[in-house]
Amino acid sequence: MKKGAKRMEIISQRQLILIGTSFVLNATLLGPLVQVIQKGGTDAWMSVPIAGLPALVSVWMLAATARRFPDRDLFQALAERRPVAGRIVGLAFIAYFFFLLCRDFRMLVLFINIALLEFTPLFVVAVLILVCTVYMARGGVEVTARVTEMWTFLFAASVLFIPLLMAGDLRIHHLFPMLYDGFMPVLHGSWYLFPFVGEIVVLPFIAGFPTFGFKSGTRGLLLGIVCIFVLLACSLLVLGANVASRFNFPAYEVVRLIQLTDFLDRLELPLVAIWMPTMIAKMAFGLILAGRGLSRMFPALSERELIMPFGSLAVVFSFVLFRDLTEMLVVNRLLPFIGLVFQIGLPLVMLLALRPGRQA
Asked: 150 exposed, middle or buried (CB, 10 Å; 0-12, 13-18, 19+)?
């Protein structure tokens, strides 16, 4: 390890796979599903695998780049190999991760306010989420990875079990007629979905090669896509496209319909209780990446000490940038263009320009 270099906290490949699943799955459930259904209609389920293709390309490019820098995350590789241009790219990724953190924070506050605690002041909800997120982030990557491993596994297993619980309510006729308006609505839906699925690009900034590689990135991506597919397909099969497109959170609404017996209902509450820690852990990784990125770019800064200021800023900016749910849906229309830059463009630039042993 070079003098002044930061120690990379050790996480396992299994933990990294589930971290990738968390980034692919969590924000998607609160963000673009309703817009995907509105655009794709009965064929919206086809948008999910299509949206995963650009993310798969991103994983391949980032894995090929990370392989050149064993045991170093991409923040370290950028700062060491391209001292000027690399720091500019690193700062751009920090801004991107911070923007995603603000969006996730606001989405979670809105979901809790709309679906769970309608009469609780937003300030109280925001402060409680901030405290949990900062406390988890200050524990470091290893602690947050353990939390993600446990809760994301439980949530993914629960999601995959949902079709069995709702087998009697699935109506295959809700998927017909197929491709009535052609294939363009499906592509339009995948356009909204791909920047959320593409958040898998965070993995090489959390862990370097060999923990992050094409296999681990692909496995995390595929598990997340399968879970999204299951929830979206269940929404269409149970509610139908016309009804599902009227809900802000169609996946949550379809889970609310699960009723095993006359006295055992409201199973959405245990599922939300399992999902909530995974979302908080995702935001904790956003704080960690912001602090880690700056400490890698400028070694005099302390990653741990930057977490609380970044958390406070995220709360403020989340309410400034996204005033309500309508504005968040408008921002979703812009996210694909941002995704093209940070999930396709910059990974391609790093693949071509970031090579060991060559300094700028």
From this structure: middle
Rounded to 10°, the helix 303-321/122-138 angle is 160
Among 348, 357, 359, 360, smallest CA distance to 68 is for 357
pLDDT at 115: 87
DSSP string, 158-186: HHHHHHHHTGGG--GGGG-STTTT-SHHH
The CA distances from residue 297 to 76, 78, 140, 207, 319, in Å, are 8, 8, 18, 16, 28
What does the pLDDT look like over 87-108, one tens digit per residue?
999 999 999 999 999 999 999 9
For 174-193, the pLDDT digits (tens) are 888 888 888 999 999 999 99
Distance CA 163, CA 28 (A): 19
pLDDT at 358: 46
Instruction: Tell how many helices (H) and how many strands (E) occur in the chain.
Output: 16, 0
Residue-by-residue DSSP string for 6-73: PPPPP--HHHHHHHHHHHHHHHHHHTTHHHHHHHHGGGGGGHHHHHHHHHHHHHHHHHHHHTTSBT--
Dump pLDDT digits (tens) for 16-34: 999 999 999 998 998 889 9
Q: Which residue has the tokens 């769970």?
A: 116
pLDDT of 219 reads: 96
- Of 5, 41, 15, nearest in space to 206 by CA: 15
| Contact criterion met (CB below 8 Å) for 65 and 212 | no
**Burial classification of residue 188, based on how many CB atoms lie within 10 Å of its CB (0-12 exposed, 13-18 middle, 19 or more buried):** middle
pTM for the structure as a whole? 0.92
Bridge partner residues of 209 (DSSP) = 70
H-state helical runs in 68-140: 74-81, 85-111, 122-138
With CA atoms as reference, report the closest residue to 61 among 359, 352, 356, 293. Answer: 352
Q: 331: burial class by Cβ within 10 Å (0-12, 13-18, 19+)? A: middle
Give the single-character DSSP code of 209.
Answer: B
CA 45/CA 234 separation, integer angstroms: 10
Predicted local confidence at residue 5, as pLDDT: 47
Residue 7: pLDDT band with limits 50, 70, 90: low
